[in-house]
């Protein structure tokens, strides 16, 4: 994508916090599903505001009695609580770098896991189609579609092992989509050299 200045970050709390309450499983993607820079910047604004408010809260209040009883109050305990919080952020960041090519663009960080998997399937599809394979109906050894198959929601997706990443959004594959997933006519007739290179 293009480099652009984000002048209107998403500050609507309903939009930002809807990511937090999504399922981390299936196609919902939890916070990692964010797919535009406005929401990413807006999320950072909200995290910054909440961190400042949380800091002020801890400066001006004493811990509740249940918290004083439940937690250990020592330097080592504070360090361990801080390390636990940092590890949660680290695990979240690792999910972002593995799955999200908006926050971690492939041009700078290499392909995400799903993008690499889909690109490999696409590359083999292009190669075998040139060699004469009928990619719309060929079956693999398990009886599933070797190149194309149906997703759980009925969309046409790349087949084989890459099917688990069926909801990937990448700039090289989007022009091949139609209303029901991948468009077989576009795959047979409209694959462009730049898409092959990018994949």
TrEMBL record:
<feature type="transmembrane region" description="Helical">
    <location>
        <begin position="40"/>
        <end position="60"/>
    </location>
</feature>
<keyword id="KW-1133">Transmembrane helix</keyword>
<dbReference type="GO" id="GO:0009523">
    <property type="term" value="C:photosystem II"/>
</dbReference>
<dbReference type="Pfam" id="PF00421">
    <property type="entry name" value="PSII"/>
</dbReference>
<keyword id="KW-0150">Chloroplast</keyword>
<keyword id="KW-0602">Photosynthesis</keyword>
<keyword id="KW-0604">Photosystem II</keyword>
<keyword id="KW-0157">Chromophore</keyword>
<dbReference type="GO" id="GO:0009767">
    <property type="term" value="P:photosynthetic electron transport chain"/>
</dbReference>
<feature type="transmembrane region" description="Helical">
    <location>
        <begin position="81"/>
        <end position="99"/>
    </location>
</feature>
<dbReference type="GO" id="GO:0005737">
    <property type="term" value="C:cytoplasm"/>
</dbReference>
<protein>
    <submittedName>
        <fullName>PsbC</fullName>
    </submittedName>
</protein>
<dbReference type="GO" id="GO:0046872">
    <property type="term" value="F:metal ion binding"/>
</dbReference>
<dbReference type="InterPro" id="IPR036001">
    <property type="entry name" value="PS_II_antenna-like_sf"/>
</dbReference>
<keyword id="KW-0472">Membrane</keyword>
<keyword id="KW-0934">Plastid</keyword>
<dbReference type="InterPro" id="IPR000932">
    <property type="entry name" value="PS_antenna-like"/>
</dbReference>
<keyword id="KW-0148">Chlorophyll</keyword>
<keyword id="KW-0464">Manganese</keyword>
<keyword id="KW-0479">Metal-binding</keyword>
<keyword id="KW-0812">Transmembrane</keyword>
<dbReference type="InterPro" id="IPR044900">
    <property type="entry name" value="PSII_PsbC_sf"/>
</dbReference>
<dbReference type="GO" id="GO:0016168">
    <property type="term" value="F:chlorophyll binding"/>
</dbReference>
């Amino acid at each position: 994508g293009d480099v652009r200045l984000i002048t209107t970050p998403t500050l609507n709390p309903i939009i930002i916090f809807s990511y937090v309450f999504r399922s981390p499983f299936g196609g919902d993607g939890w916070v990692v599903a964010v797919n535009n820079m406005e929401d990413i910047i807006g999320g950072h604004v909200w995290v910054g505001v909440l961190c400042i408010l949380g800091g002020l809260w801890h400066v001006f209040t004493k811990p509740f009695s249940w918290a004083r009883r439940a937690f250990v109050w020592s330097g080592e305990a504070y360090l361990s609580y801080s390390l636990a919080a940092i590890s949660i952020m680290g695990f979240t960041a690792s999910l972002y770098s593995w799955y999200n090519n908006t926050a971690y663009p492939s041009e700078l960080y290499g392909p995400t896991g799903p993008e690499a998997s889909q690109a490999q399937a696409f590359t083999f599809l292009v190669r075998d189609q040139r060699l004469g394979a009928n990619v719309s109906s060929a079956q693999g050894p398990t009886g599933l579609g070797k190149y194309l198959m149906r997703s759980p929601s009925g969309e046409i997706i790349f087949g084989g092992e890459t099917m688990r990443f069926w909801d990937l959004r990448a700039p090289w594959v989007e022009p091949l989509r139609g209303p029901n997933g991948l468009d077989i006519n576009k795959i047979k007739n409209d694959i462009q050299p730049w898409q092959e290179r990018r994949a």
